[in-house]
Amino acid sequence: MEFESTIGLEVHVELSTNTKIFCGCSTEFGGIPNSHVCPVCLGLPGSIPMINKKVIEYAIKAGLALNCSIANNSRMDRKNFFYPDCPKNYQITQDKFPLCRNGYIEIEGENNKEKKIRIERIHIEEDAAKLIHTENGTLVDYNRSGVPLIEIVSKPDIESPKEATMYLQKLKSILQAIGVSDCKMEQGSLRCDGNISVKEKTCIKLGVRTELKNINSFKALEKAFEYEIKRHIKAIENGEKIERETRRWDDEKGRTSVMRSKEQANDYRYFPDGDLVAIKISDEDVKRIKKTIPELPYEMAERFEKEFKISKYDAAVLTSNLKIADFFENAAKLSGNPKSAANWIMGDMSKFMNEKSISIEDLKFTSSELADLIKLVDSHKISNNIGKKVIEEMFETGESPYDIVNKKGLAQNNNEGEIYEIVKKVILKNPKSVQDYKNGKKKAAKFIIGMIMKETKGNANPEIVNKLVNKELR
């Protein structure tokens, strides 16, 4: 039997406002437990919420960036459920009248073809408190309660865990670029729920779906979805019944487990929130907010391809983070060598940043100093290998490449006469290697070249060394 999976994602994004959605409490991450709270976000009797205008603007901005239509009339609703992280016993959210509808983003699907993933809706809501489970019981921190969220609900257009990851990565890059969220998954600013069903390819009707809750990394998303798809397939093959339920992913054990039976929408008994007025958005409001949307990552990637003549892959990697994209663009223009700038950033710089767990904004040197390094290599004042030593020093000290080269005497020797004398000297000292070369062992030339580079402390121009050694060994 052949099977196919159908996936829809519900992505919860914490908005980067200074205060919560219905009160003036801070949204700052961390802090002493239950210190960023007030009667409103604690749900105390008699407290009255008031909506944060910035939340509405950020949600509209996200909707426009994701090709949604914006509702002129919207409202807030109460979603009723009983859980310790929800002190009012209801969550203020949006049900039938969300702010944004009918959007989409495009990802690269099978055979490198663009695939459109439709977005059903984007609505605003308040976050719940954080539960901390201990050996002695469960603790509740209400600092997160009332932090503003947008929930982005996709249509079931995703067919594989890989596509789900690509969708979420692109979504993240767009939201970061427009500045509505920092999307720090490790802090819970971006969380993902997935609805998954599996059926035989010949079957028209979709399979029974299960929901995976609160996935907070790309690696976990792909592993969890792959596990769940295999679980569904095994159950179908064994003739077992698949229950409609909510499950959690255990990253350590590498499996999902049941949390609860999946609720239906009518279980929540939605009704309009009587304390909050209706939301009315004018066309002028939408036009004003649209003007604040910068160049989006995929638009920037297309421009980089054309303007800097770099590959589609390089452009996609460099624009996945706006700070990296800005760093690259400046270095590319100042150095006049965009391909080299891309190679340094995606190669040595990326390696060092990963090793040191730092981001591009934490670097001790600037994009103009990377451009200076590229110019030193391109003008043959230093070799590419010496350049690798220089950039490592730049990471450590923040000194300019010119100062490092001058201080450590790393300038490349391009004097052919001087290099020729060293070549002759090394060849005379290694007659066996010369004879090996003449006997057909071409690797012997590499040994001699290595000895010459050692003799010159790596400063001899490698092109000149190669040319002279090949000439002498003929």
UniProtKB/TrEMBL annotation:
Residues 326-473 form the Asn/Gln amidotransferase domain. Gene3D superfamilies: 1.10.10.410, GatB domain, N-terminal subdomain. Its EC number is 6.3.5.-. Keywords: ATP-binding, Ligase, Nucleotide-binding, Protein biosynthesis. One of its GO terms (molecular function) is asparaginyl-tRNA synthase (glutamine-hydrolyzing) activity. It catalyses: L-aspartyl-tRNA(Asn) + L-glutamine + ATP + H2O = L-asparaginyl-tRNA(Asn) + L-glutamate + ADP + phosphate + 2 H(+); L-glutamyl-tRNA(Gln) + L-glutamine + ATP + H2O = L-glutaminyl-tRNA(Gln) + L-glutamate + ADP + phosphate + H(+). InterPro entries: Asn/Gln-tRNA_amidoTrfase_suB/E, Asn/Gln-tRNA_Trfase_suB/E_cat, Asn/Gln_amidotransferase, Asn/Gln_tRNA_amidoTrase-B-like, GatB, GatB_C_1, GatB_Yqey_C_2, Gln-tRNA_amidoTrfase_suB_CS. The keyword Oxidoreductase does not apply. Allows the formation of correctly charged Asn-tRNA(Asn) or Gln-tRNA(Gln) through the transamidation of misacylated Asp-tRNA(Asn) or Glu-tRNA(Gln) in organisms which lack either or both of asparaginyl-tRNA or glutaminyl-tRNA synthetases. The reaction takes place in the presence of glutamine and ATP through an activated phospho-Asp-tRNA(Asn) or phospho-Glu-tRNA(Gln). Belongs to the GatB/GatE family. GatB subfamily. Heterotrimer of A, B and C subunits. This is Aspartyl/glutamyl-tRNA(Asn/Gln) amidotransferase subunit B. It comes from Clostridium algifaecis.
